Amino acid sequence: GLVNTKEMFAKAVKGGYAIPAFNFNTMEQMQAIVQAAVETKSPVIMQVSKGARNYANGTILRYMAQGAVEYAKELGCAHPQIVLHLDHGDTFELCKDCIDNGFSSVMIDGSSLPYEENIALTKKVVEYAHKFDVTVEAELGVLAGVEDEVASEVSHYTKPEEVIDFATRTGCDSLAISIGTSHGAYKFKPEQCTRNAQGKLVPPPLAFDVLHAIEKKLPGFPIVLHGSSSVPQEEVDTINAHGGKLPDAVGIPEEQLREAAKSAVCKINIDSDSRLAMTAAIRKYFDEHPEHFDPRQYLKPARENMKKMYIHKIMDVLGSNDKL
Ligand code: G3H
Ligand code: 13P
Ligand code: ZN
After folding, report:
1. How many C-beta atoms lie closer than 10 Å to residue 295's C-beta?
2. pLDDT over 80 (residue 153)
3. Average pLDDT, stretch 158-176?
4. What is the structure's pLDDT at 147?
5. Ligand nearest to the CA of 22
6. Among the atoms of ligand 1, which is closest to the Cα of residue 271?
7. Quick one: pLDDT at residue 14?
């Protein structure tokens, strides 16, 4: 069945790699994630946001994830390691509902709350979750941009001097931190970036000094990076070449994610890159086949393109391949 994050994080921290956490809302995303994980022999976290539950229905997504384990076996993986994780849970009730309904891991995101309230809420979720062997991700520090429904104008890096107190008092299993990543396909404003010779935006580097200070305070403790899509230029170009309009989209350079994955960062969240891969393939297909209207015709290349992206992240960026 589904597994929690405990063992896979311990192995990832020791092994100097990171587990991919891919969001899913559709069957094609689920299939592409499972195919990629099986082909690369990688553990994987399939995560569901509140928005995903609203879009697709929580029960359907839960059974899809349970089906994903069976699907992985059918594809020849004897012992798949698949986590079903709630992404950005914002209340105890939402986390409880997921824990009561088959999720093996939840995130309680109290990062927008005052420190003591974040601790109290997180601790309450941890106490409930651990009764059922469900692991809990917490967040300290605020990411820039729109965080699900929690909007924040500015980012506040995680304060290294708070992490020991926070982790000890909440009992959380992993900690999402803020070191300069943000959600979506527009992670930096053009004025925060420089431009390279081709006129493309080059974002400012992540705050690795903050990450290293946190690692020093909590040696071996699983750290999570949200907002880690790299917004591949190739996909943005394909979208824009086929009627799309994504000017100045910019993500986190993969070189920096590669570096983060070697540290205590053991979970890297990617959603936007999947959206871009899907949209690029569909836009291109529609342009090239205006006479087609069977969804299977255009969802197949969309699924293939997402699978290619997932495999690339696993093998060339996070290093979680051959870890089953
Ligand atoms: O945190 C953001 C994730 O990319 C999920 O996005 O809330 O639109 O499903 P969503
Ligand atoms: P991206 O928008 O960078 O893919 O981040 C996804 C994420 O953090 C989901 O929680
Ligand atoms: Zn996130």
Report:
1. 11
2. no
3. 98
4. 44
5. 2
6. 4
7. 98
Q: Which of 89-93, 147-151, 277-281, 302-306 has the lowest mean pLDDT?
A: 147-151
Of 87, 90, 109, 173, which one is the catalytic site residue? 87
Label residue 145 by pLDDT band (50, 70, 90). Answer: low
- As a whole number, mean pLDDT of residues 4-10 equals 98
* Domain range annotation of the chain: 6-318
Question: Helices then strands (H, E): number in the chain?
Answer: 12, 12
Q: Tell how far the Cα of 135 is from the centroid of ligand 1, in angstroms.
A: 20
Between CA 316 and CA 137, with CA 182 as vertex, the angle to 5 degrees is 80
CA distance 114 to 121: 11
Is 133 catalytic? The answer is no
On average, the pLDDT of the chain sits at 96
pLDDT at 154 over 90: no
pTM to 2 decimals? 0.97
CATH architecture of the domain with range 6-318 = Alpha-Beta Barrel (3.20)
Q: Which atom of ligand 2 is nearest to the CA of 21?
A: 9
CA of 270 from ligand 2 middle (Å) equals 5
The pair of structure tokens assigned to 120 is 């109290």
CB contact set of 52 (below 8 Å; sequence gap of 6+): 23, 24, 25, 61, 87
Gap from CA of 216 to ligand 1 centroid (Å): 30
**Residue 309: exposure state from Cβ atoms within 10 A (0-12, 13-18, ≥19):** buried
Q: By alpha-carbon position, which residue is closest to atom 5 of ligand 1?
A: 49
